[in-house]
Design brief:
The chain folds into 2 domains: 137 residues, Alpha-Beta Complex (Aspartate Aminotransferase, domain 1); 234 residues, Type I PLP-dependent aspartate aminotransferase-like (Major domain) (Aspartate Aminotransferase, domain 2). 47% of the residues are buried. It is an alpha/beta fold and 422 residues long. Helix 5 crosses helix 10, helix 13 packs parallel to helix 15 and helix 14 crosses helix 15. The chain contains 15 helices and 14 strands. The mean pLDDT is 93. The strands form 3 sheets. The chain has a 7-stranded mixed β-sheet, with helices on both faces.
Length: 422
Amino acid sequence: MKTSPNPFTALSLAEQQLDALDATLMRRRLKQTQSPCDIEVKVAGRLLKAFCSNDYLGFANHPQLVAAMAEGAAQYGVGSGASHLISGHSVAHDLLEIELARTQEKHIDDARALFFCTGYLANITAITALAGLGLHPENQNSGISIYSAKLNHASLIDGVKLAAAQTKASVHLFDHTNLAQLNEMLQADSAAHKLIVTDGVFSMDGDLAPVADLLAIAETYDALLIVDDAHGFGVLGKYGHGILEHFQVQSDRIVYIGTLGKAAGVSGAFVCAHQTLMECLIQKGRPYIYSTATPPAIAHTVLASLHLIEGEEGQARRAHLNQLIAIWHQEMQLQHWQITPSMTPIQPLVLGSNAAALFASKQLDEASYWIPAIRPPTVPEGSARLRITFSANHSALVVRELISELQRIEAIVHASSETKMV
């Protein structure tokens, strides 16, 4: 008779990790959608009103982009076949990169853009390759310093960690709402090569980085300024060109990163900077060098999205978004939950505990709304929240209905003890 083998150690460790997540109400679970990304989504056979997507302009199921995807696939096929530097770089990629660089040419000297599969990949590539500039033999003993905003997205955090491991750079965290602190740290820094890394729009709070002030500091202390505008591109600025257009800044020391799977409604991301820096990314950016290129059909579709973003329809959709945000600011009144008004489509409601956030999300689900609970480590401990996002496809009526529903749920949550919530 066979005896049971010794327990699989890794499996046991994994079970312990999952048990710990369950005990702290931090385990995440997948929900399968059965319809296109839109303001109403079918999930498990139920139609839910979605206020959780990053499809801010409502382009993810836009008929012109659906047609562009089919057109691109017919023209270029469905795969690229290799990395960009082997044989995967299509004319579709080239055309898109020219147009992406054009969106930032008023803000970055001699701008050039590179198209990436994801924003995560773009951030890791940019940070590691540009931090590595400090390893040039002439600067090898002079030091590298990276200054990263405390509330940066995970992809920026991981990019900074990887860059530090590769280059032995020193890493310093700063509060983007207290730039005096950043100024003091840089004043005492003698490193020859410095990077300041920040989100443009902070994804969990919806507030904007003070890019003009950060640029002034970067110029004072000769640092590169890397801005990940994942939630600003397509939304901010008259033509949707993002946070640099919004603040009307211009410099050759800015490295701009925009995401194309959020407001643009498609997929991928881009890095845009002075053409000399971009050439270094092509030569030294390992994730770019060793990743299969995004299918050209995607690039073709993003190009169509750019035309929508910049044109009359994009401008009208941004104006409508601003109207929805104004309604929220004027009419959203709560007694107990923390409202942090934002000028972007991201509107957080901070509830504090994981239990309260999960309970509120469950109540919303029962009322046919889809707004997941956001918990640590995505947000700091004790700041679990509902992250409400607007789309240009939402109407003023449905926003007002959501406000009423949230006010009703807040009263229930406040009246309940946390031990009974979940």
